[in-house]
Amino acid sequence: MDTEKKYVVVPWDFTESSEYSLAHAIQLARVMNNGILLLKIISTKKGFLGSKKSVSTNEVATLKEKMEAKAKEIKETTKLDAIALVKPGDSKRLVINEIKSANANLVVLPYRYPLVGKRYKNSVFNSIITESNIPFVVTSKRPRHDYYKELVVPVDHDKKYKESLAWILYLSRYYNCNVNMIKPFITDPFMKKDMANNIYFTKKMLDKHGVVYGIKTAKRKQPFKAETFRFTELIDADIIVMMLKQYNKWISREEKLNTSSPIMIVPPRSDLIKYGALA
């Protein structure tokens, strides 16, 4: 692995859902000049009490051979650097360490993919994305288009919303895409003030970087979540960007993703503002 190069990590299990995630990862890796890392954590748990089972050397070798063949295929068809990694274990710390060791820029994976063990657990997912300190993109379908053109951002009155701006600017700069902000209809004076501050800050940063954007207010009598997804489908948007807190509030416990567009989940990163990533 090139230790200087950044990678887009794709948790891999040879399913159709993983192929959808890979298609998105390839689009993102191309514009960011990243490589692709296929990652497979082999569960070692079995039984009701979660007792450990040994993973045979042959099992690991066979899977690694299949993964490397897939990585070779990706490299030949996309001209991107592509590698495969197989690790036995069930620790979230193992997953976090592998993501960090790969110098990962993003993780792209199917919605509710079990990163640890055989069942998806939201608490584990939250811990991994927070400690990995990079955005995760969850997918349910293939990319709508050959490149990202329309980006949807549900604007929150929470001051931490500004932390997602670094990635909004990043995507808009590389893809030259339009930023479509949607904000809730608010009557509370204090929340309105915080929202106005966030909108002002966002517009200031987008104007500074020459980004094309628009702002839409959701209908008064409709839930903001429903209005956001309706707006996303209406403009045929390519990706939605939101903070982890908002993702947990709206989406994480749903059995299926309620939109065809992938969702970029941004973990809390106050250092992005503190150290000038939004300057």
- As for the number of domains, it is 2
Share of helix, binned: 40-55%
Assigned CATH class of the largest domain: Alpha Beta
Shape: globular
CATH fold type of the largest domain: Rossmann fold
Please work out how many helical segments DSSP would assign: 9
Biggest sheet: strand arrangement? 5-2-1-6-7-12-11-8-9-10
What structural class is derived from the secondary structure elements? Answer: alpha/beta
Low-confidence stretches: 272-279
Please give the radius of gyration in angstroms.
19 Å
Q: Bin the strand percentage.
A: 15-25%
State the total count of DSSP E strands.
12
Task: Give an overview in words.
- With 279 residues, this protein is an alpha/beta fold.
- It folds into two domains: 7-139, Rossmann fold (3-Layer(aba) Sandwich), CATH 3.40.50; 150-274, HUPs (Rossmann fold, 3-Layer(aba) Sandwich), CATH 3.40.50.620.
- The chain contains nine helices and twelve strands.
- The strands form two sheets. It has a ten-stranded mixed sheet with strand order 5-2-1-6-7-12-11-8-9-10, with helices on both faces. Strands 3-4 form a two-stranded antiparallel sheet.
- Helix 1 links the parallel strand 1 and strand 2.
- Helix 3 runs parallel beside helix 4.
- The longest helix has 22 residues, at 57-78.
- It is globular, with a radius of gyration of 19 Å.
- The two termini are 32 Å apart.
- Residues 272-279 have low confidence and may be disordered.
